[in-house]
Amino acid sequence: MTEKNYQEIINMTTNGVYVIGSKNKGIINGMTCAWLTQISFEPMLIAVSIDKSHYTSELIKKSGVFSVSILSESQKDIAKHFGFQSGKNVNKFNNIKYEISSNGVPILKDCIAYLDCKVVNFFDIANRILFIGEVLSAGLKQKESRPLIYRYYDYF
Ligand SMILES: Cc1cc2nc3c(=O)[nH]c(=O)nc-3n(C[C@H](O)[C@H](O)[C@H](O)COP(=O)(O)O)c2cc1C
After folding, report:
1. What is the mean pLDDT of residues 9-19?
2. Mapping DSSP to helix (H, G, I), strand (E, B) and coil, where does residue 58 land?
3. Measuring from each residue's beta carbon to the nearest atom of ligand 1, which residues come in under 6 Å?
4. Is pTM, for the whole model, over 0.90?
5. What is the number of other CB atoms lying within 10 angstroms of the CB of residue 152?
6. Nearest atom of ligand 1 to the alpha carbon of 53
7. I need a labelling partner for 18 at 20 to 30 A (CA). Which of 38, 100, 124, 145 fits?
8. Topology, domain 16-155
């Protein structure tokens, strides 16, 4: 089996779709992410894999905090908005409704729910950084909505 085939199989694993909010000094940014998972219950820890070249990696490394906005089934357009352009070139929060968490990180107003995290560890792996975040606070905004499930072919 070739690497391409492996990828086709891995695409069968299920993930949600999230917007990772980040900040540094006066700057805020958001990035779509599917490679996120819970890794511990007590303490409540999550892991998120972010490409080193993304602006988000730089901001999280500098500030040590990030948020996770959980997208609903109706927010595929939001996933594309935050996933196909870089905050290096554009302010992605222009014309997007957001709030600032107690960590000072942006959270989408229309998300299903959010997590507010501080980085407790990170690992340098290939061209990625695996950030381990401890959840410091969280909120449920839309109990009735269903989360957006990541399907590779919806985006690429
Ligand atoms: C549906 C979807 C899921 C994505 N998941 C990830 C991911 O898990 N990790 C990652 O590094 N990039 C992921 N990306 C790509 C980034 O969102 C994209 O490169 C973004 O422009 C980076 O923004 P930034 O430079 O402002 O940080 C995803 C993109 C899409 C559309």
Report:
1. 93
2. helix
3. 17, 29, 31-35, 49-51, 54-56, 79-80, 83-88, 150, 155
4. yes
5. 13
6. 25
7. 124
8. Pnp Oxidase; Chain A (2.30.110)
